[in-house]
Amino acid sequence: MKDKKIKTYKYLLWDIDGTVLNFLASERYAIRTLFKKYNLGECSDEMLKTYSQINSKYWQKLETGELTKPEILVGRFSEFFEIIGADVTVVEDFNRDYQVTLGDHIEFVDNALEILLSQKGKYIIAAVTNGTKVAQEKKLRLSGLDEIFDYIFISENVGAEKPNEEFFDYVFEKMKIKDRKEVLIIGDSLTSDIKGGAIAGIDACWFNPLHEKNTLNVPVTYEIDRLEKITDIV
C-alpha cells in the first residue's frame, strides 16, 4: 500500500452499492417485500444468505463477460427459486418488481454521506455503478445523491460495465479527464472497481470492511476497512 497523501487527486470515482449505500439492507428489504407480494411464504435469513451468494456469483460472471446483464438478472432468481422450491415461472415478473423495490430502502454505509458532502466542491466526484438503471436512478434520487455527485455513470447508460476499459474511457471523456494520475476510484468490489481501476490505469482504493483476502491478486493502491479512512488518502 502507498503512504498517506503522497498524491493529489482531483477526480474521485465512487462505487455505489456496498460502498456508499448498504446494498445488503436494500436487498433484504426488496426480497422480503416481494415474497409477500408473490405469496412465496417467509424469506428466512438462510434463504437471503443463499440468494446473496448466488447473486454475487452471477454479477461476477457479468464482470468477466461470461453472461449479459439480462441473463444475470433473471438467471440468479431462476437458480434461487429452484433451490428453495419456489415457482420459477414468476422470475421475470419478480425481477422486474425487484428493480423498482430495491430503490425503496435507502441506508447509507457508515459516514458515507458525510464524507461525500465534505468532498463536494473540493473534488470532482462521480458515481460509477453497474447496478440497473431502474434501481440506481431511484436510489440516487431518494437518497439525494443525485444532487451531490457532479457526474453519474450507470453502466446501462454507458453501454459497458465495470471493469471494462470502455466504461472508464467513456467516464474520462465525459469528465474531460486528461491526466489519469489525478483519478482515484473507491469501491468494495475487487472484480469490478479495483480491477477496473487497474485496467484503466488509475489508482484504486479497496473498501474492505470484512478484511477479505485479495485472492485474485488484483493491484490495490490503498485498502481501508472504514470509509472515514479515505481522509488519510485524499
What does this protein look like?
With 234 residues, the protein is an alpha/beta fold. The chain folds into 2 domains: 11-21 and 108-232, 3-Layer(aba) Sandwich (Rossmann fold); 24-104, Putative phosphatase, domain 2 (DNA polymerase, domain 1), CATH 1.10.150. 45% of the residues lie in helices and 12% in strands. It contains 9 helices and 6 strands. It has helices spanning 23-37, 45-63, 69-84, 91-101, 112-119, 133-143, 155-158, 165-175, 190-200; strands at 11-14, 124-129, 151-154, 183-187, 203-207, 222-224. It has a 6-stranded parallel sheet with strand order 3-2-1-4-5-6, with helices on both faces. Strand 4, helix 9 and strand 5 form a beta-alpha-beta unit. The radius of gyration is 18 Å and the shape is globular. The protein starts with 10 loop residues before the first strand and ends in a 10-residue tail after the last strand.
Overall CATH class of the largest domain:
Alpha Beta
Written as H for each helix and E for each strand, in order along the chain, the element string is EHHHHHEHEHHEHEE
Largest sheet: 6 strands, parallel
Strand content: 5-15%
Low-confidence stretches: none
Helical residue percent band: 40-55%
Strand order of the largest sheet: 3-2-1-4-5-6
Can you identify the CATH superfamily of the largest domain? Answer: HAD superfamily/HAD-like
Counted up, domains total: 2
